[in-house]
Amino acid sequence: MKSLLVHLYSTTNYYYIRFRLNEVIMENYDSGLGRYPVSSVIVTNLAMLLWIGSGVFAIWLLRPLAGIIFGIVGLVGVYTYLRWVVCRHCWYYGKRCSSGWGIISAAFFAKGDESRFNQRSLLVHIFSVYGFLMLAPMVVLIYLFMDSYAPIQIYALIAVFLFAFISGFILRIPGCTRCKQRAFCPGCASPLKQ
Ligand code: SF4
């Protein structure tokens, strides 16, 4: 009984301290951009569409219908599901963030709770969608490689890797580095955290 009470106390205290820390950290916006340039929005979305498109191309090689379904699921995942799960809790909700997705979120969903934005559980949703975009074409291409070899499969493989790398890594670094939330965002790709 005593150990249970100690456990309950330490757990509650842990979450209380964590909540207080989050409060302090989340108020600590740095001097990042309040509004990103349109060029950032265009380049980010172009890279994302090329990533999804290269996945459609790769899966199309197996079955055209499967490629189309992958494209629809990918678009819904990126432009609807994640905008609901993540962006409605973001400070950039309704504002022009590096990707412009804060504006998309505000167009479709009610504002969420900013205090929930730094929860690491959001990463599960983010990795699920981006993991699907990366792994589904890979699995299909590996399956095709086992069956036969064609140069077009190599092109598809290179395209998926290239656009995933550009969209998911290269372009995120400058976007996150100029972001007001980089100090506490769990998905921040910037090497600078303060
Ligand atoms: S730090 Fe990066 S991932 Fe996080 S809200 Fe800012 S731009 Fe988005």
3D architecture notes:
Mean pLDDT is 85; it is low at 4-28. The protein has one domain (31-177). The protein has seven helices and no strands. It is mostly helical. Helix 2 (38-60) packs antiparallel against helix 6 (151-170). It has helices at 2-27, 38-60, 64-85, 101-108, 121-147, 151-170, 172-177. The termini are far apart. The structure holds iron/sulfur cluster. Iron/sulfur cluster (SF4) binds next to helix 7. Residues 90, 98, 175-176, 179, 181-182, 185, 187-189 line the site of iron/sulfur cluster.
Briefly say what this structure is.
It contains 7 helices and no strands.
Count of runs of 4 or more consecutive helical residues: 7
Got a strand count? Answer: 0
| N-end to C-end Cα span | 43 Å
Assembly type of the chains comes to single chain
Q: What is the helical fraction, as a range of percent?
A: 55-70%
* Main beta-sheet strand count, sense and barrel state: none
Morphology? elongated
SSE class: mainly alpha
Count of folded domains: 1
- What proportion of the residues form beta strands (DSSP E)? under 5%
Point out poorly predicted stretches.
4-28
Small-molecule binders here are: iron/sulfur cluster
Helix-strand sequence: HHHHHHH
Radius of gyration, whole Å: 20 Å
Mean pLDDT over all positions: 85
